[in-house]
Amino acid sequence: MSLDPEMLRRSLCAHFGGTDNWQFETVADPSGSKYRLCILRATNADTGRDVAIKANTGRDRNEEQFRALEAFYNEGVDSIRPFYIDCSKLFFVMEWVDSPLLAQKLGGAHHEELIVKAGRWLSQMQSLSANNILDAS
Predict the structure, then answer these.
(1) What pLDDT does residue 27 have?
(2) SS3 at position 15
(3) Beta pairing class for 82-85 and 92-95
(4) Residue 133: which region, alpha, beta or left (left: phi > 0; alpha: psi -120 to 50)?
(5) What gap in Å lies between CA 75 and CA 8, rounded to an integer?
(6) Edge-to-edge, what's the strand order for the sheet holding 92-95?
(7) Which of 61, 10, 8, 55 is nearest to 28 (CA)?
(8) What is the DSSP annotation of 73-129?
(9) Rounded distance, CA 87 to CA 66, Å?
């Protein structure tokens, strides 16, 4: 998966205004991963603003993840702020949080599998809570 830097610069400028002096650093690369996920850190060299750009191979997955972040953020849940999703759903942009990746903290040969299992578990918990099966109090 490859994101065109010039297209990203135009998109970021359209949303945030200012200059197109954005620099990109690859944080997660899909090569060698079965989950095909790309995460970039974008920094505007003039303003110092940092944002994260996340792109899954599936456009539906990008939209689902963006909408989930948006719902958490709008409900006042302490979460990362989503800024916008590209109109073609190739990627979405969210607040950058300068911290180690969960995969880096877990380490080991099967860390991606553990992350996927944890995500499934959290999704199930959210579904139960949404259906009032689980009392959150």
Answers:
(1) 85
(2) helix
(3) antiparallel
(4) alpha
(5) 29
(6) 22-28, 37-44, 50-56, 92-95, 82-85
(7) 55
(8) HHTT-S-PPEEEE-TTSS-EEEE---S--HHHHH-STTHHHHHHHHHHHHHHHHHHH
(9) 12
The dihedrals phi and psi of 120, each to the nearest 5 degrees, come to -65, -45
User: 88-131: per-residue pLDDT in tens?
Assistant: 999 999 999 887 665 566 666 566 677 777 778 788 777 766 66
Q: Whole-angstrom Cα distance, residue 38 to residue 29? A: 5
Model confidence pLDDT, tens digit, residues 51-74: 999 998 888 989 999 998 898 888
Q: Indicate the helix (H) or strand (E) that contains 131.
A: none
H or E element that contains 1: none
| CA torsion, ordered 28, 43, 69, 32, to nearest 10 deg | -10
Which among 56, 77, 89 is positioned nearest to 126, based on CA atoms?
77
How far, in Å, CA of 42 to CA of 52, rounded? Answer: 6
Q: Would you mind telling me the total number of residues written for the chain in this entry?
A: 137
Which amino acid is it at 68? A
